[in-house]
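Table S7 (text form). Paired inputs.
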Amino acid sequence: MPNAIDKSSQLVTDFAGYSTLHGFHFVLGLHAPIRRLLWLCLILSCVSFLVVQLVLSYQKLSAHRHVLDRDVVPSKSLTFPAFTLCNINMMKRSMIDGTDAQLYLDKLDPVKASQVVNKTLSSSFDLKKAVLEYGHTASEMIKLCTWNGKICSYKNFTTSFSYTYGLCHTFNLGDNEEELLNSTSNQRDLGLILMIDINDDEYYGPISYLSTGIKVVVHDQKEHPMVDEFGDDVMPGFTTSIKIKREKFHRLKHPYSSACGSKKLVTSNEYVRSICILECNTREMIKKRGCRLLGMPNLPEFNTTGYCNPSEIISDVVTPRASNCDCPLPCEEI
């Protein structure tokens, strides 16, 4: 038995002598006890430090943090963004006098609502048709248009709808397979130059009390403009310049904090977050009130859904917001 113990002790001593772990042979070798204890403390301290570093590194790795990497890539040519403008007045005063369109605006007006509380809109009233007929068209508003030093016109604009402002007009949308415009210079004179007539003498309704002018949004062609939420005000009587820059975002999927993703949409073949939010809020509005706001899509799942009347809009308007919608950030976005 003693021979076995001596043999095992010798094997451990030999292992320590051949080990590449620095200082290990001083712990098990035939050295003074104090020296062996000192080396043992040093080795244990190093091992403890190593374990701590491993744990911290693992925690950092499992947290899936990402580093913001930003590069500036020069380019001789960039796709010019879409530019959407809306007159903040929904319908013209001279054209709606005595019509259901005037009654519609009066019922939305806190000042006049009490005066028309007993009046009702006719069942044949079509808000979209009224806005198309009485709203501020691109041909009336756009008095001068130049792009890249060349003349353009209202025909280069595509009309859409806003539930607050009525008609909106977008330049360089690229619909109907039209080729998108490219910008090759940052000079002011080679961008988009517009002279707008807002017809402020035609203003009528609750919005007209607040201000006059237009709402504008610069956005990617794939995006829904969301003028009602993010539009910038441009006042009449001034020259307004808008300087823009193009940024492209690449995000990481789950489990990283950006948690980008996509989902199938009804009104778009490609995932776009603003359109996802619009569809989500349209569903919420229809399920809650049985109607939709002007500019909201007519989703096939609900068949044909009419527009909300003024009382429904005032009592429970649902504006597009992302908090209640399952619309992840896209992994690639401009």
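Next pair, protein 2 of 2.
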Amino acid sequence: MPKLSRPPDPQDPEYQQTEQNVNAVLHTMIFAAIATGIWFFQELYRADWAWSAPVLSWWSVGLFGHTHIVIWRDRRRVTP
């Protein structure tokens, strides 16, 4: 986590940018942990969970969109 040069203010654009980046990374980490867990237990129990592929597919689409929105906002802030 980067150090802020002043006390945190939720209205500050730098604080909002950092918060959005942290949220995107947290979203990615939770997705990776749950997807790995589903895969692990599916292999462990030799289960055929038909629901796992659609759930993870839709979640990955949402994650892809979330990441692109965060990147787009970051680039828009940098460009004058």
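Residues 4 and 14 are 8 Å apart (CA to CA).
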